[in-house]
């Protein structure tokens, strides 16, 4: 089957389910749609597993261009299914329903979690060569033991790596990489008030003040009274990639409880490193996370 035909097939199935979502107005109807999504997700996960297993056993070069395109289409479709399923389950919870319906919602969330975990793990399989090279190039003194079991529905804002490792234009925003932070501080005349190492080697909490400027926009030698805070990681201990992995792992650890309780932010830990995590409750997207010491 060529890539266009596969893509059309997934699109038709997705459009059909979307039409059903529009019509579900009660808890029982929405749960029925969620069941359809669960079944569809199971089918997609099974096919992704076939492609991933072939890549794992025979190498990435064994995949045909059509299989690579199909895997990419499946991954995109799984993302759409995640968002749709979250929508109908939320609608079902809001509209209420019988005890049986409530139990079914819990069951669906648990079972689709397996499929979601498979789809996200698949990205690591298909991109294994690049990941291994990145690890070899950057190297990390702290390596993950085992794989992260991502909860169903979790997804991450794609700008997160940039937020962690780079300095944005307005002051010191993002820049949790210590090297980037200290350069930004130097470039912008920032005064470091204190530096407190955390309980984990390589994580430091910093308090600082930003300089004041005259009307012409030049530094005037003073500092604003407000004490700002930032937690940074030492890239010699944790690579950017490693912190990203740990942050995603931490976000996954507290995700279900945060979603269920309607939180927009929560604290979670991965391999001893504590993270502050921010959520978009409407979409289920993890919009931001960074290491903290308290």
Strand and helix map with partners:
Blueprint: H1 3-23, H2 27-58, H3 65-95, H4 99-126, H5 128-138, E1 155-156, H6 160-165, H7 178-187, E2 191-197, E3 203-209, E4 211-213, E5 219-223, E6 228-233, H8 240-261, E7 265-270, E8 273-280, E9 285-292
Parallel strand pairs: 1-9
Antiparallel strand pairs: 2-3, 3-6, 4-5, 7-8, 8-9
Helix pairs in contact: 1-2, 1-3, 2-3, 2-4, 3-4
General description of the model:
The protein is α+β, with helices and mostly antiparallel strands. The protein has three domains: 3-126; 143-161 and 238-292, no CATH class; 173-233, no CATH class. It is 55% helix and 18% strand. The chain contains eight helices and nine strands. The protein has helices at 3-23, 27-58, 65-95, 99-126, 128-138, 160-165, 178-187, 240-261, and strands at 155-156, 191-197, 203-209, 211-213, 219-223, 228-233, 265-270, 273-280, 285-292. The strands form three sheets. Strands 1-9-8-7 form a four-stranded mixed beta sheet. Strands 2-3-6 form a three-stranded antiparallel beta sheet, covered by helices on one side. Strands 4-5 form a two-stranded antiparallel sheet. Helix 1 runs antiparallel to helix 2, helix 1 (3-23) packs parallel to helix 3 and helix 2 packs antiparallel against helix 3. It is elongated and about 65 Å long. It starts with a helix and ends with a strand. Residues 109-148 and 157-171 have low confidence and may be disordered.
Largest sheet: 4 strands, mixed
Task: State the low-pLDDT regions, or none.
Answer: 109-148, 157-171
- The tally of domains stands at 3
Radius of gyration: 23 Å
Count of helices?
8
Could you estimate the helical fraction of the residues in percent? 40-55%
Q: Any idea what the shape is?
A: elongated
> How many DSSP-defined strands?
9
Q: What sequence of helices (H) and strands (E) makes up the elements?
A: HHHHHEHHEEEEEHEEE
Q: Averaged pLDDT, please?
A: 71
The side-by-side strand order for the widest beta sheet comes to: 1-9-8-7
What is the percentage of strand-forming residues? 15-25%
The assigned structural class equals alpha+beta
Rounded to the nearest angstrom, the distance between the terminal CA atoms is 54 Å
């Amino acid at each position: 089957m060529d890539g266009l035909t596969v893509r059309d097939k997934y699109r038709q199935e997705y459009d059909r389910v979307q039409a059903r979502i529009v019509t579900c107005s009660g808890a029982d109807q929405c749960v029925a749609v969620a069941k359809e999504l669960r079944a569809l997700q199971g089918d997609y996960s099974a096919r992704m597993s076939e492609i991933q297993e072939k890549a794992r056993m025979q190498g990435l070069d064994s995949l045909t261009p059509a299989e690579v395109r199909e895997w990419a289409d499946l991954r995109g479709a799984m993302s759409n299914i995640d968002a749709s399923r979250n929508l109908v389950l939320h609608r079902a919870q809001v509209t209420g329903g019988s005890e049986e319906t409530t139990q079914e919602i819990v069951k669906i969330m648990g079972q689709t979690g397996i499929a979601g975990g498979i789809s996200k793990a698949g990205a690591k399989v298909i991109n294994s060569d690049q990941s291994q090279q990145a690890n070899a190039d950057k190297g990390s003194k702290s390596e993950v033991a085992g794989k992260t079991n991502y909860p169903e529905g979790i997804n991450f804002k794609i700008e997160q790596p940039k937020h962690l490792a780079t300095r944005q234009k307005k002051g010191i925003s993002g820049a949790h990489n210590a090297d980037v932070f200290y350069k930004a501080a130097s470039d912008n005349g920032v005064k470091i008030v204190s530096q407190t190492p955390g309980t984990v080697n390589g994580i430091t909490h910093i308090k600082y003040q930003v300089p004041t400027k005259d009307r012409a926009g030049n530094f005037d030698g003073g500092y604003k009274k407000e004490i700002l805070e930032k937690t940074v990681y030492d890239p010699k201990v944790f690579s950017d990639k490693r912190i990203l992995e740990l942050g995603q792992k931490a976000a996954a650890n507290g995700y279900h409880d945060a979603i269920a309780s309607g939180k927009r932010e929560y604290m979670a830990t991965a391999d001893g490193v504590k993270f502050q995590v921010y959520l978009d409750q409407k979409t289920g997207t993890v919009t931001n996370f960074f290491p903290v010491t308290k």
